[in-house]
C-alpha cells in the first residue's frame, strides 16, 4: 500500500468494531478468515491466529507490510465471497486516497468475474456490508445501482466482466477477481493472464492489492501457477496464497453435503470441496505453441492454381454447437490452413450445408471429411449439393492427439480466425474413470465449445498425414 494512502483504522479494529465488521464475520467459525484478512494488511497476529495462518498458507510468520496480492484457493461454500467482500469494503471505505487522487478523479474498486452475473454475488455481499454497518452506510453517495456503489470519498465499487481491454487506464484501490480458475474456460477472448496483467498497473498508484479468490480446477492457468510459485515459505513475501478445504474455512458446512459429493464424483469433489487441483484434468496445448504457428494477420488464403486442397467439417450436434468447416493444403512439408467458416446455431442447416458446399467447390473440392456423431443427415445434405461427406476414421481425441506433434514441431501454418486460439488453448486432457483412457475435449462447463478447433485440427491432421501431390513430386525429384 502506498504510504500516502492512509488507513482510517486497522483491519483488526474494523473486525472487532460492532459498528463496522464485527457482525459480518462473527464467532469462531470465521476465525480463519479474520486471521487471513488481518495478516493481509501486514498487521501482527496473536499466537492462536498465527497457528491458523501457518496451517492455511504454509508460512510461519505473517507479512510485515500489506501484501500486493492475496490469492484465496478455497473450496466451494467456504465463505470466500463474504470474507472478500469485507476486504473490499475496507479498501473502498476505510482507506483515504485523497493524497493520490487527482481533482475530479474517481478511484475504482472493480469486482471481476467471467460474467457480471457472477460478479454480482460479491457485489451484493459488499452492498450488504455498507447497508448493515453504522459506520459505513453514511459513506454511500446516493442510491446504489445494480452495478455501482458510489462513495462520498470518490471511490466507486463496480461490477465488471473479466476483460483486459476495459480495465486499462484507471486508478484502482484494489481489485476482487472471482473464480479465476474458470475465466479461461468460458470461450472468452480474455485469458486470465492478460486480464490480471492489465489490472496490476492500475494498482500501482495506490499500492492496493489484487485479491483473487477461486475454487481450484485443472493444473493450469494463473491460479495453479501462482500456487506452485508462491504458496508456502519460499513464495514471494508480497504475494500471499492460502489454500484450504471448504470445511476448514466454514466449519458450519454440513458434512453430509460434502460426503455425498465425494460419493458421486471423488475427483470433482476433491476440487470443489477439498481445494485440490484436479490431477485428472490437464492443459493439452500451450499458448506459445499456438502462437508460434499463427500466420500474421491474414484471415483467409484464396484458392491458388496447382494446389490440392482438403477439408474437414464439424457438423452441429444440436443445441448451442456451431457447424464449422476448415480448408487447407500441404506444401513443402507444412500443412497450411486456408479458410475457416463457422455457422452459429439457429439458422437453416440446409442453408449452412449449401454455403459450405459452395466454398468447397471454390477450392476445387468434391468431398469433405467429418466426424460420425451427427448421424446420416450431413451425408445426405452434402450429397444433395454435389459433395461427398466422408466419415473420419479418427475420433475427436485421436485428431487432437495427432495434431499436437504437428503443432509443437511447427509443421502447420494457421490463420488468426475468431475463437481458434482460445479454443485450442482451452482443450483439456482428462483421464476417463473406468477405462483409464485419455479424452481430449473442451472443458466440461457451460458455454465451452471446440467447434472451430475441431475442424481446424481435423484438416491439418489430414494434410500432415497425407502429403500433397507437389510434395510427392518434390520427393521423387530429390
- Count every helix, treating DSSP H or I runs of 4 or more residues as helices: 17
Record the strand order, biggest sheet. 5-6-4-7-8-2-9
User: Rounded to an integer, what's the Rg over CA atoms?
Assistant: 27 Å
Biggest sheet character: 7 strands, mixed
Q: Which stretches are poorly predicted, pLDDT < 50 over at least 5 residues? A: 185-189
Helix content: 25-40%
User: In whole angstroms, how far apart are the ends?
Assistant: 67 Å
Mean pLDDT figure:
87
Derived structural class: alpha/beta
Shape: elongated
Q: Which band does the percent of strand residues land in? A: 15-25%
Number of strands: 18
